[in-house]
């Protein structure tokens, strides 16, 4: 479920309204309480009043379904110890342009879907094995939600990012645990099938972000939960979108949240303005977003992702940080194209 997810089960339900709202770029939520109102420590885009309203409605909705939960700053737990994160759901409510009046509807939809997914039969028990394999996809996710004890197979993609396998269902996306994979077969073969399925997805939308000074980068976006994960098949995506292959130097990429993948193919010194613009793009797109992945820009080179931006530990300011290999690349491009 989008937003409210059981950390141990991994089901992420989705709705048409929320898919529509997720695809904005530099989106900012509607203004409700003034900025001078005391802010909630956990979800700072909420005032204290709005946060109390949100958490109270979450608790009430669970109670209506016969589940008493204990409410904490960023999650709730039920009597059996199941833990449900609130960050994505809070972001969905925050960004809905209709304001607090629709929060009960959004929260009710989330909670009912997640409870139904928990209490109903598992798709792993009801679907034929070949259908399961046909609906497998790889997902690049933030490491914040990855428990090494449950997702030991997860492949490290970049600092703070991992690749996991997910089962795409009509109402949910089930992130598969080690236990689930044991029932399905060899993880390497399952990953190969998942990547094939990913390659078969259409490119839903494409925009070019550019300015008058020649800075540009490409953005693919769409409703699919796997749009950002197409970084795992970047060369094919670049060919489909631009009609040209990647160069040996690779590309800059950013995956602010699950419905966006930005890239700039490295061909010349236009990489310099693109790097700064994409760093800001990633940071803005990541902030308070459902399905957030990373606020940083990366260098994709021969299938490896190297982080190029970060927030300073002391001042929190966004900055570009490059290693020796990327610095050598920049110097080579400048010598070749001094203009």
TrEMBL record:
It comes from the Bacteria. This is Uncharacterized protein. It comes from Streptomyces laurentii. The lineage of its organism: Bacteria, Bacillati, Actinomycetota, Actinomycetes, Kitasatosporales.
């Amino acid at each position: 479920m989008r937003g409210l997810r059981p950390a141990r089960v991994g089901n992420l339900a989705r709705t048409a309204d929320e898919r529509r709202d997720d695809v904005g770029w530099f989106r900012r939520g509607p203004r409700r309480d003034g900025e001078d109102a005391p802010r909630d420590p956990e979800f700072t885009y909420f005032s204290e009043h709005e946060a109390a309203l949100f958490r109270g409605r979450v608790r009430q909705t669970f109670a209506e379904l016969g589940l008493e939960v204990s409410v904490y700053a960023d999650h709730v737990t039920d009597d059996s110890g199941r833990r449900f994160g609130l960050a994505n759901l809070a972001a969905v409510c925050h960004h809905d342009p209709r304001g607090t009046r629709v929060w009960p509807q959004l929260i009710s939809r989330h909670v009912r879907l997640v409870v139904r997914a928990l209490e109903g039969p598992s798709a792993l028990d009801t679907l034929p094995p070949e259908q399961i394999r046909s609906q497998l996809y790889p997902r690049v996710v933030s490491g914040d939600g990855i428990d090494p004890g449950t997702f030991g197979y997860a492949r490290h993609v970049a600092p703070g990012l991992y690749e996991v396998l997910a089962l795409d269902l009509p109402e949910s996306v089930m992130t598969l645990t080690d236990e689930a994979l044991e029932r399905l077969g060899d993880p390497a073969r399952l990953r190969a099938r998942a990547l094939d399925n990913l390659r078969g997805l259409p490119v839903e939308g494409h925009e070019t972000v550019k300015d008058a000074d020649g800075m540009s980068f490409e953005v693919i976006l769409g409703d699919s939960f796997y749009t950002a994960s197409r970084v795992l098949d970047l060369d094919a995506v670049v060919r489909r979108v631009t009609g040209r292959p990647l160069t040996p130097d690779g590309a800059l990429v950013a995956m602010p949240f699950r419905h966006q993948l930005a890239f700039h193919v490295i061909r010349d010194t236009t990489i310099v303005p693109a790097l700064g613009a994409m760093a800001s793009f990633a940071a803005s797109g990541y902030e308070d977003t459902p399905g957030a992945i990373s606020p940083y820009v990366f260098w994709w080179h021969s299938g490896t992702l190297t982080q190029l931006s970060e927030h300073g530990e002391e001042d929190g300011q966004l900055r570009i940080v490059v290693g020796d290999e990327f610095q050598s690349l920049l110097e080579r491009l400048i010598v070749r194209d001094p203009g």
